[in-house]
Structures are given as C-alpha cells and as structure tokens.
Design a protein that fits this description.
The chain has a two-stranded antiparallel sheet with strand order 1-2. It has helices at about 15-25, 30-40, 45-55, 65-80, 90-95, 100-120, 135-150, 155-175, 175-180, 185-199; strands at about 30, 95-100. About 65% of the residues lie in helices and about 5% in strands.
C-alpha cells in the first residue's frame, strides 16, 4: 500500500473535502467522473470520504443510493489497499449522476457536523498508521463497502457503515487515530443489526 501521502498536501480536513465537493456541486448535474477530476485520481482518502459522507445524509433515502455508494467505497478502498497509485472505475460508474442541487443540500446538512470534527482533531495514537496496523482502515472500508448493498433493507445500517468509513478515512487524513478507534462503535451496531435480522 503506497498510502498516497501526497494527497494530504492539499486536503488536511473534512472541511477541505467538503469545500472541494461543494465546488463540484455547483453544476446542474454531477457525475462521478466530475468528482474524480476535482479531487484527482490518486487522492484515495478524499475520494473515499465523499461517498461515505453522502451515505450519512438524507440522500441515503434515495432507492439504491446506499448500495451504489457501497460499491464505490468498495472499489476505492480495495485499490487503496492494493497500493495502486491511480484509481480506476468502470465507465458505468463514472457516468452515474446526481442533481447538483440535491448534492448541495446533502452537503449543507452535514457541514456543521464535519466542522465540529475538524475542531477536535489532533495527532493521536500514531501507532495505528504504521505496519501492521495501517492496513486495518482500508481493509475495514473494503468490508464495509461490500456490506452496504447486502444491508440495503436493514434500517440505518448503511448510514452506520458510512459513518464508520468516514471516521476511518478521516483518521488517516488527519493522523488522528482516535477516530479509527471510535469507528468500532458503529461497527458493533451493524453486527448487532445483522445478528437481529439473521436470528
């Protein structure tokens, strides 16, 4: 895994990611290709944050939206885990679009929350960003992304998984390991939900 540390020279916080996404959302229609162009095809962590953040907004109520974001999270995180230096996505995903107005509304709903996270971050639990622990966040994000389409009908499960991906990615972006540890809380909730459904 290369880690793609260079992307952090420009984006250091959730607010930075939100501002970049808001710039793209000025369009009437926003495609996944537009988002990749805005962030750069080597910016794995910010690109992972975008669909994860959107899953925790009211946009998750759109039918199959959570499943699509889960697929996107899976494809991004598995390539991050594999150490690729350039993200590849199939054309059918690149062409998918969402209304710019809907995207702006979704981002506005979570902006106060992301700003609060930024205010309380600092470098902590640095051991999580070195071998062998640094493989855990992308591996966990890969699993969570794969689970989202399977749990589409389980209430709130996709939002909980999305929150976990946000916290894990945010911890890598800011080098604040506390958020990676906090991500275990929604993971536990999802495990409980799966157990409740299966039993």
């Amino acid at each position: 895994m290369t880690g793609n540390d260079g992307e952090q020279d420009e984006l250091h916080s959730l607010s930075d990611v939100m501002d970049r996404a808001a710039g793209v959302a000025r369009r009437d229609q926003v495609t996944v290709d537009n988002i990749l162009d805005a962030f750069g095809h080597a910016s794995f962590i910010p690109l992972l944050l975008v669909p994860a953040l959107l899953v925790v907004t009211p946009l998750s109520g759109i039918p199959a939206f959570s499943s699509f974001c889960g697929i996107l999270i899976f494809l991004i995180s598995v390539q991050w885990l594999a150490g690729r230096d350039h993200l590849w996505l199939p054309q059918w995903i690149m062409r998918r679009k969402i209304s710019g107005e809907r995207l702006r509304d979704g981002l506005d709903k979570i902006r106060p929350w992301t700003a609060r996270l930024d205010r309380h971050t600092r470098e902590r639990f640095g051991f999580l960003f070195h071998r062998p622990f640094r493989f855990i966040p992308p591996l966990a994000c890969t699993v969570f992304g794969a689970l989202m389409p399977l749990l589409e009908l389980v209430p709130f499960s996709s939002s909980l998984l999305g929150a976990a991906v946000v916290l894990l990615s945010f911890s890598m972006l800011t080098r604040d390991g506390l958020y990676a540890l906090v991500a275990l809380v929604p993971v536990g909730a999802v495990v409980w939900a799966i157990t409740a459904v299966l039993l």
